[in-house]
Amino acid sequence: VTDRKTVLVTGATSGIGLETARILSGQGFRVIVGARDAVRGPAVAGELSAELLHLDMASFASVRRAAERFSGATAKLDVLINNAGIVSRDRRMTEDGHELTWQTNFLSAFLLTRLLTPCLLRAERPRVVNVSSEGHRAGAIPWEDLELSHGYRGLRAYCQSKLALVLFTRELARREPRLAALALHPGAISTNIWRAAPKPLEWLIRAILPSAQSGARPVVRLAISPEVEGLTGRYFKRFREMDPAPAGRNDADAARLWQVASDSVASFLGGQSV
Ligand SMILES: NC(=O)c1ccc[n+]([C@@H]2O[C@H](COP(=O)([O-])OP(=O)(O)OC[C@H]3O[C@@H](n4cnc5c(N)ncnc54)[C@H](OP(=O)(O)O)[C@@H]3O)[C@@H](O)[C@H]2O)c1
To answer: How would DSSP label each residue in 184-209?
Structure first.
């Protein structure tokens, strides 16, 4: 029996996540498609000969159930790709009482990673890849109003969540030296994420930008390439390592954010309360 490496990709039903899952499956990896859509999830898993893990990043209960199902079925996870992400034009709240973008793009990625860390640590060279964005450079962490009850704008919430992923990557690398934690900007890519833009702009953008396959390539590289072996806590703009924004290099903020996220998901973390 060959010991195929296992990779879990969240948000694998469209865009960059779908193409990432497709490339990895084509290369013989055991791919787990994390998906919320009851129709496209099974369809994609079938098409890619991958396994399906039902996962709604807007619900902590769903994230925990997914982590439990995964951990029950498989002891070991080699790579976790936190790819699922949204832009929401309107401020919406989840069933858990969090602003939708903050929970989907960041808090649930944090929770999923924490719940799957024991599985990751059973792998020989585990990696966590956080799909962030150059948008993090325009982001800030408004400590007094993380859920943006004042001054909500879709892009503001998005950039904040992407900065949070950069800080999370940094702190995860510090706390889990056996894990490689990497963040990246996959490129400006033609995907459904541009749905949040006004229609004519969406059409224009989607006509001009490179395909989702192009966005998947740097994600796949960070997930499996020996070229990045030994690196952790780093940020990449596609294939090139770069410094993230100064706000993404602040260790005190990274530690503070970890604490905030831990508190937000505390009742879903089980024993792993730190
Ligand atoms: N495209 C770009 O130019 C660009 C640039 C920088 C960074 N990124 C990042 O790249 C990542 C992938 O985005 P994309 O561009 O490929 O966009 P996309 O085509 O819209 O794909 C987003 C994926 O996330 C999933 N998702 C959204 N909400 C979810 C939830 N609550 N639970 C589970 N899955 C959920 C979507 O599932 P459904 O199909 O069910 O909606 C979809 O599979 C995102 O993190 C995005 O921020 C993209």
So the answer is: EE--S--SGGGGGS-HHHHHHHHHHS
Residue among 22, 40, 95, 192 to mutate when testing ligand 1 (max atoms within 8 A of CB): 192
Cα 2 to middle of ligand 1, angstroms: 32
Could you report the per-residue pLDDT of 5-50, keeping only the tens digit for each?
999 999 999 999 999 999 999 999 999 999 999 999 999 999 999 9
End-to-end CA distance of the chain: 37
Residues 6+ apart with CB under 8 A from 193: 15, 85, 86, 87
The 10s digit of each residue's pLDDT in 53-111 is 999 999 999 999 999 999 997 789 999 999 999 999 999 999 999 999 999 999 999 99
Q: What is the pLDDT of residues 196-218, one digit of tens each?
A: 999 999 999 999 999 999 999 99
Q: Which atom of ligand 1 is nearest to the CA of 187?
A: 5
- Ligand 1 centroid to Cα of residue 167, in Å, is 20
- What DSSP element (H or E) covers 215? helix 212-224
Q: How far is the CA of 87 from the centre of ligand 1 (A)?
A: 9
Among candidate residues 154, 151, 155, the one with its CA nearest the CA of residue 136: 155
Q: Indicate if ligand 1 lies below 6 Å from the C-beta of 139.
A: no
